[in-house]
Design goal:
The complex is a heterodimer of chains A (270) and B (346).
Chain A: H1 3-34, E1 36-38, E2 48-49, H2 52-58, H3 63-95, H4 101-113, H5 116-130, H6 136-160, H7 164-172, H8 177-206, H9 209-215, H10 222-231, H11 235-259, H12 262-265
Antiparallel strand pairs in A: 1-2
Helix pairs in contact in A: 1-11, 2-11, 3-6, 3-8, 4-6, 5-9, 6-8, 6-9, 7-8, 8-11, 10-11
Chain B: E1 4-11, E2 19-26, E3 31-35, H1 42-50, E4 57-62, E5 65-66, E6 77-80, H2 92-102, H3 107-121, H4 136-149, E7 154-158, H5 166-183, E8 186-191, H6 194-200, E9 203-208, E10 211-216, H7 218-223, H8 228-233, E11 240-243, H9 244-248, E12 268-272, E13 277-280, E14 284-293, E15 297-304, E16 307-314, E17 324-329, E18 335-338
Parallel strand pairs in B: 3-8, 3-9, 6-7, 7-8
Antiparallel strand pairs in B: 1-2, 1-4, 4-5, 9-10, 11-12, 12-18, 13-17, 14-15, 14-17, 15-16
Helix pairs in contact in B: 2-3, 2-4, 3-4
Classes of the chains: A mainly alpha (270), B alpha+beta (346).
Chain lengths: 270, 346
C-alpha cells in the first residue's frame, strides 16, 4: 500500500470510530451506569460493579415493574382507541370523495403542530373539570390524540394502496360492502395498519409531557419513573429504565420493514 | 342465455359526459365487442352494465329484467378486469370459489364447479399457488375461471388480453371465443384493438367521445363505415379519406367523380381502402414516399396533392421512392362522406 492509501484507510477508520462512538457511546454509558453500584468523581469508571439495582427494579413489588405494567396497559389501550378511529377514518379518507379531505388530514396533524406543553396544560385543565385528570382513561386519550396522526395517515395510505379493482371484483362476485371490506380490503391493508399500531404503541410507551400533565400523580408510567429517578440523582434506576424502554424500539426496528412496504409509504399523506 | 340492452344510458363525472346517450342491444349468446380509442367511454359503459357505476339516466336491461338500479351482486353478470383483479392473499382455488362462497353455494357444489372450471382452463396443477406465482397467461386463466364458475348468463370483459404478449393474445382470443360459444354466454368485450373486435365479435359497437359511432356486424363495419372516424379506425392501414375537391382539382381528378352523389363536391370527402387501389397508366397522379414489402403484399405510401395516401398491392410492387405513379380504383369501392358532419352519404 502507498502511504496515501494508508492515510485514507486510517481516516476512514477514524471517521467510522467517531460515528460508532456517537451512536454507541451514550448507550455504553447507560449500560455502565446500570451495573455501577458506586461511581463518583474523580473516577472515570465505576468504583464497584454489581446487579443490585437490577434486582431493585425487577423486584415484583418495585415501582419499576408496576410502572412498566401501567405503561404497557396504557400503550395497548391507546393502540385500541387509535385503531377504532383510524381504520374507519383511513378507509374514508382513502376511498370516499370527501369535500374537506386535506383539511381533515391536517386536523389530525394539529396536536403535533403546536408546542406540546401549551396544549397539555389546557388539556389538563379541561380534563380536571371532566374528572379525567389522574386517570388511565385521560392518559390514554392524550396518547391517542398524539398517535392518531400516524395511525390515520398510515391507515389512509394502506387503504389507498389496495387496488380498487379488487373491491369491485368482489362486489361483482356478489359480496356485500361489509364482506368485501372484511375479506379483501382489510387483510390487504393489514400490514400497513399493523405498522401504524406499532408506531402508536411505541409513541405511547415513550410519551412524557402529556402523561406528566394529565396523569401525575396517580398514573406513573416508565418515562415518568425515569424522570423522577434521574431528577433524584438515582442514575442507576434511570439507566435501567431507559434500557427497558429501548427494548421495544429495537424490536420495532427489526420488524417494521416487513410491515411497511414501499407502495404504502409512497401514499402517506396523499 | 340472456340478452343485454341499453337505452339512452348517460354517465358523467363532472364536465363532458363520459357515456352519452348510449343505446345498443346484444342478442342472447352473442359476443359483442365495445371498440374505441382510450377515453371513449367503453370501459365506463361496461362498469355501468356491471353495476360498479350507477347510470345518471337511461335503462339497462339484462335477461329481460331491468337492472339499472340493482346492486352488482343482483345483476347476474360476471366480469373479468383488465388488471385481472386477482386477490393476492388468496390461492388460485380460493380466488375461483370466492364468489360461490359469498353466495353460500354448498361445499360439494363448490368443489364440483371448481374442478370443472380448472379442467376447462387447464389450471389443475396451479390451484394451491398464489396469483403472484403465476405467469400473465395463467393469471388471465384464473380470472376467466372466476368468471365462469359463477355460471352467470352474461360475462363482461374489460380489455382482458391487453397485458399479454402478442402470440399468447392470439391463442387466448380463440380460446375465449370457443369458451363463450361452448357455454352459451352472452359476452360483452371491451377492447381498443380493432383486430380483436373484428376477429372475435358477432357485433361491434364502435364508440367515440362517449357516444356510439356505429353498431354493426364486423363485415358491415368494414364495408359500410358510418363515418370517417369508423372508416379510419377499422382496417390496417386505415382507409384513405380526402376532401373530394383536393383530388378533382388535380390532373386526372374528375375521373373519381363517377358514381358520386349529386351534390356540390366541395361538401364531399372521398374514401378508398388501400387494398381497393390499383397502380395503372391513368388515374390520379401520386408521388411514392416509401415502399414497405410485407411478403404477401406491399404497402406503398404516396402523396396525392401533398396529402398522405396509402396503397396496398398483393405481392411485390414495382415502385420506388420518388417515382410518380397513377392511382385508379373501381367507382363501387369508393365511400362518400359529408365533409362537415363526417357521416356516410351513400
Amino acid at each position: 500500500m502507498t502511504p496515501r492509501a494508508v492515510a485514507a484507510t486510517a481516516a476512514k477508520a477514524v471517521a467510522l470510530a467517531l460515528f460508532a462512538f456517537a451512536l454507541f457511546g451514550p448507550l455504553a454509558n447507560l449500560v455502565l451506569w446500570s451495573v455501577a453500584e458506586r461511581w463518583y468523581a474523580p473516577f472515570k469508571l465505576p468504583v464497584s460493579y454489581g446487579l443490585r439495582y437490577w434486582e431493585i427494579v425487577f423486584r415484583p413489588t418495585g415501582d419499576a415493574m408496576s410502572s412498566l405494567a401501567t405503561s404497557v396497559a396504557i400503550a395497548g389501550l391507546t393502540v385500541l382507541v387509535a385503531l377504532l378511529v383510524s381504520v374507519p377514518a383511513g378507509y374514508a379518507l382513502a376511498r370516499l370523495k370527501l369535500p374537506a379531505r386535506t383539511f381533515i388530514m391536517i386536523a389530525f396533524l394539529l396536536p403535533q403542530a403546536f408546542p406540546s406543553v401549551a396544549i397539555y396544560i389546557n388539556v389538563a385543565r379541561i380534563f380536571y373539570q371532566l374528572g379525567l385528570a389522574g386517570t388511565v382513561t385521560g392518559v390514554v386519550l392524550v396518547h391517542a390524540a398524539h398517535g392518531l396522526v400516524y395511525s390515520v395517515w398510515i391507515a389512509a395510505a394502506a387503504f389507498a394502496a389496495v387496488d380498487r379493482d379488487l373491491e369491485l371484483a368482489a362486489r361483482n362476485m356478489g359480496a356485500s360492502g361489509l364482506r368485501t371490506f372484511a375479506t379483501i380490503t382489510l387483510p390487504l391493508a393489514a400490514p400497513g395498519i399493523m405498522a401504524s399500531a406499532i408506531f402508536v404503541f411505541l409513541e405511547s410507551l415513550d410519551e412524557f409531557t402529556g402523561t406528566f400533565f394529565v396523569g401525575v400523580p396517580q398514573v406513573t408510567t416508565l418515562p415518568l419513573l425515569l424522570y423522577s429517578a434521574s431528577m433524584g440523582g438515582n442514575y442507576q434506576i434511570a439507566s435501567i429504565t431507559a434500557l427497558i424502554l429501548l427494548v421495544p424500539s429495537v424490536l420495532f426496528m427489526m420488524v417494521i420493514e416487513r410491515f411497511l412496504r414501499a407502495d404504502v409509504l409512497s401514499k402517506v399523506g396523499q | 342465455m340472456a340478452d343485454v340492452s341499453l337505452s339512452g344510458v348517460m354517465k358523467g363525472f363532472g364536465g363532458a359526459p363520459a357515456v352519452d346517450r348510449v343505446s345498443f342491444s346484444a342478442r342472447p349468446g352473442s359476443l359483442v365487442a365495445l371498440l374505441g380509442p382510450s377515453g371513449c367511454g367503453k370501459s365506463t359503459t361496461l362498469r355501468l352494465i356491471a353495476g360498479l357505476e350507477t347510470a345518471d339516466a337511461g335503462r339497462i336491461v339484462i335477461a329481460s329484467r331491468e337492472v339499472t338500479e340493482l346492486p352488482p351482486a343482483k345483476r347476474g353478470v360476471s366480469m373479468v378486469f383488465q388488471s385481472y383483479a386477482l386477490f393476492p392473499h388468496l390461492s388460485v382455488a380460493e380466488n375461483i370459489v370466492f364468489g360461490l362462497k359469498v353466495r353460500n353455494v354448498p361445499g360439494s357444489e363448490r368443489e364440483a364447479r371448481l374442478k370443472r372450471a380448472a379442467d376447462v382452463l387447464g389450471l389443475q396443477q396451479l390451484l394451491d399457488r398464489k396469483p403472484s406465482q403465476l405467469s400473465g397467461g395463467q393469471q388471465q386463466r384464473v380470472a376467466l375461471g372466476r368468471a365462469i364458475v359463477a355460471e352467470t348468463p352474461v360475462c363482461l370483459m374489460d380489455e382482458p388480453l391487453s397485458n399479454l404478449d402478442a402470440q399468447l393474445r392470439v391463442e387466448m382470443r380463440r380460446e375465449i371465443r370457443a369458451l363463450q360459444r361452448r357455454l352459451g354466454m352472452t359476452m360483452l368485450y371491451v377492447t381498443h384493438d380493432q383486430v380483436e373486435a373484428m376477429t372475435m365479435a358477432d357485433q361491434v359497437v364502435l364508440m367515440r367521445n362517449g357516444r356510439v359511432e356505429q353498431d354493426a356486424e364486423p363485415d358491415a363495419l368494414y364495408e359500410r363505415p358510418a363515418s370517417i372516424f369508423a372508416a379510419r379506425f377499422v382496417g390496417t392501414p386505415p382507409m384513405n379519406v380526402l376532401p373530394a375537391t383536393l383530388i378533382i382539382s388535380g390532373p386526372g381528378g374528375t375521373s373519381i367523380m363517377t358514381g358520386a352523389p349529386a351534390r356540390d363536391p366541395a361538401t364531399l370527402a372521398v374514401g378508398v381502402r388501400p387494398e381497393a387501389v390499383r397502380l395503372g397508366e391513368a388515374g390520379v397522379p401520386a408521388t411514392v414516399v416509401a415502399v414497405e414489402y410485407l411478403g404477401a403484399d406491399t404497402l406503398i405510401e404516396t402523396r396525392v396533392v401533398g396529402e398522405p395516401f396509402v396503397v396496398r398491392v398483393s405481392g411485390r410492387a414495382a415502385a420506388t421512392a420518388g417515382e410518380t405513379v397513377h392511382l385508379a380504383w373501381d367507382p363501387a369501392a369508393v365511400h362518400w362522406f359529408d365533409l362537415s358532419s363526417e357521416r356516410r352519404i351513400n
